[in-house]
Amino acid sequence: MRLSLTNAIKFKANAPLLLHSSSLPIAKSTLAFRSVLTPLISPLSLTGRPNTVTFLPSPFIRCRAAMATAACVEVKEQIELTETEKKIFDRLLNTLRHFNLETQLRVAGGWVRDKLLGKECYDIDIALDNMLGSEFVDKVQEYLSSTGEVAQGLAVIPSNPEQSKHLETARMRLFDLWIDFVNLRCEDYCENSRIPTMKFGTAEEDAYRRDLTINSLFYNINTNLVEDFTKRGLEDLKFGRIVTPLPPKATFLDDPLRVLRAIRFGARFDFTLDEELKKAAACDDVKTALAAKISRERIGTEIDLMISGNQPVKAIDYICDLTLFWVVFSLPPKVEPAVSDECYRLSAAYVDASWQLIQLIGCSNFSDEQRRLCLYSALFLPLRCATYKDRKDKMIPAVNYIFRDSLKRKASDADTVINIHKSLEKFLSLIPSILSNEDVQITEVDWGKEFVDVPVTSKLRVLTGFLLREIKDFWRVALLVSTLLYPTEIDCSHDIIDRNFQLDKRKGIFVSVENAIVKLGLEKVWDLKPLVNGKDIMNILQLKVGGPLVREWQEKTLSWQLAHPSGTAEECLDWMKETYSKRIKME
Q1: Do the bridges between strand 218-220 and strand 105-108 make them parallel or antiparallel, or are there none, so unpaired?
Q2: Sign of the alpha-carbon dihedral angle for 260, 262, 263, 269
Q3: What residues does the Poly A polymerase head domain cover (predicted)?
Q4: Which of 96, 198, 214, 426 could form a disulfide with 101 if both were Cys (CB 3.0 to 4.6 A apart)?
């Protein structure tokens, strides 16, 4: 039987560790670390850990020990509010005074963490100790109306316990910032239910129900204090540790999305995952719960935040190390050809290689969206040939399933990555000719077009132009991913898995091909306006309506235009008339 949070923490001291939000003397900022020996009966012993009374050494001693394995993170002694934050908190406190409320207003979680790390955060979540968020939002709205101000964007997001969203959340917009309001909560679990009974809780109970200790800190707006009810949130933040307030397995089974959040924060801040946390994250019960209990949209959102973040390689490596790869990136049934056991390791290696190449080439060469989809393209590179049959027996790329079903990402993401993958063969066939400036060989690649009328000396420019028109702004992404597959002295997949990338050579290939494309004048070739339009073509073909023949000649005239960059419309039409006349005579 799972224990309630109230029972699990009843032996904890009631007083949290406190930090003032205004300037503090150093002595006060270390108030949490004053005792030499602290007797402690761990509440965690009630949920699976040894039920013993222990004496922990002074946190000063523990901190020195921790420094041997974790670098110190600079944590501010005070939270400095922006002018906007001051105005928001002032309105909320005035609401309390206006209605003579005794409610304690606490900013929870990420905002407190980021502020202590000296980072700005615009995600303000406020926890209330004695009323629902919707009730308080109504009070704020009424108070603002009495002063002539107007609240914007009022909304209530209902709870959804089936998807591990246990709290109703009220939202409003103040001074162009969204503010979320929820009540402090305590959760009780019945023996045979994964859905808790919700009730109002204390700030301490709420802190222990948070996903991580570094996210369990509160900033009390009423008192201007930072509150650390777990008594280790500040220390874990300082020493870069990702730890759950309660035993990790119970925490993850409560809300399995916390596994991915732990990974994301560990990667984002370059913090170390706790060993017990890693064991719990990798256990079958938690993996089953993650697959069954959490909506695919929420999983996809977490993955997108990792891929778009500052440490995507570390995040994907954590997912692989914790054997979560196929739980997150689930495949459709009956994939052909069968996916190898090492595929996920190869995926992680390609993400690493592409990330390092982006840094070597220069991040400024890629937009945020290009970088994001470049990493997805690398992640799913080993799956680029994998397909499955849909309900209509149509063969669909497995990557399409992962984006649309496993991650519930937008269709355009799937389309872009699949197009990048489709372009790789063509890029790989062109790279040798671009690098050597020799005639291009196209016999081994299906271009989907005929180029019999293209002069040999112009074929490279024509083929490259058509390729870039297919993938448009993502041609540099496709080129970068192509370099990962381009033969070097080391081609074995085992060498890629071992992260032996030969990045300098691949960067050299990228830069050489990029320069050649720019020199050919093809950098924005998809914006090229055709010299000849459909009406001109129909006149020469003596057609009254369009059709496949017109589309065929549109491609042919575009080929001519790419082969003759200085050509005019008249010259293109003359060429078409002559070529068409020869075809008629041959027929």
Answers
A1: antiparallel
A2: positive
A3: 105-242
A4: 96
Q: What is the mean pLDDT of residues 358-385?
A: 96
pLDDT at residue 168 in the model: 78
The closest of 141, 112, 184, 164 to 292, measured between CA atoms, is: 164
Lowest model confidence (mean pLDDT) among 77-81, 187-191, 409-413, 434-438 = 187-191
Q: Tell which wins on pLDDT, 32 or 329.
A: 329
> Looking at the chain, how many residues does it have?
587
Q: Are 445 and 471 in contact (CB under 8 A)?
A: no
Q: Is 56 helix (H, G, I), strand (E, B) or coil?
A: strand
DSSP per-residue codes, 398-414: HHHHIIIIIS---HHHH
The DSSP secondary structure of 37-95, one letter per residue, reads EEEEE-GGGGGTS---EEEEEPHHHHHHHHTTTSPPP---SSPPPPHHHHHHHHHHHHH
Q: How confident is the model at residue 188 (pLDDT cuts 50, 70, 90)?
A: low
H or E segment at 446? none
The position carrying tokens 């977490």 is 302
Residue 340 has pLDDT above 90, yes or no: no
Q: Which pLDDT band, with edges at 50, 70 and 90, does 448 fall under?
A: low
pLDDT tens digits for 458-502? Answer: 889 999 999 999 999 999 999 999 999 998 655 556 667 777 788
**Six-digit token pair at 409?**
């990402």
Judge contact between 290 and 324, C-beta under 8 A: yes
- Looking at the whole model, is its pTM more than 0.85? no
The dihedral through the CA atoms of 262, 264, 266, 269 has a sign that is negative
Q: Are 546 and 537 in contact (CB under 8 A)?
A: no
How many other CB atoms are there within 10 angstroms of residue 115's CB atom? Answer: 23
CB atoms within 10 A of CB 186: 20
What phi and psi values does residue 295 have, to the nearest 5 degrees?
-65, 150
Neighbours of 477 (CB within 10 A): 28
The DSSP code sequence of 331-400 is PPSS-BSPPPTTHHHHHHHHHHHHHHHHHHH-GGGS-HHHHHHHHHHHHTGGGTT-EEE-TTS-EEEHHH
Number of other residues whose CB lies within 10 A of the CB of residue 123: 12
If DSSP codes are grouped into helix, strand and coil, which group holds residue 326? helix
Give the pLDDT band of residue 196 (cuts 50, 70, 90).
Answer: low
- pLDDT for 530 beyond 80: yes
- Amino acid letter, 225: L
At residue 6, does pLDDT exceed 50?
Answer: no
Of 241, 377, 399, 375, nearest in space to 312 by CA: 375
Nearest to 116 by CA among 34, 35, 29: 29
Q: Which residues contact 430 (CB under 8 A, 6 or more apart)?
A: 440, 460, 463, 464, 467
Rounded to the nearest 10 degrees, how much is the dihedral formed by the CA atoms of 431, 433, 434, 438? 170
DSSP string of 285-310?
HHHHHHHHHS-HHHHHHHHHHHHHSS
The average pLDDT across 283-309 equals: 96
Distance CA 364, CA 386 (A): 33
Residue type, 119: K
| Of the candidates 156, 176, 178, the residue with the CA atom closest to the CA atom of residue 167 | 156
Question: Residue with structure tokens 């709205």?
Answer: 141
Residue 373 near residue 366, CB atoms below 8 Å: no
Pairwise CA distance, residues 556 & 406, whole Å: 41
User: Strands 241-242, 272-273: parallel, antiparallel or unpaired by DSSP?
Assistant: parallel
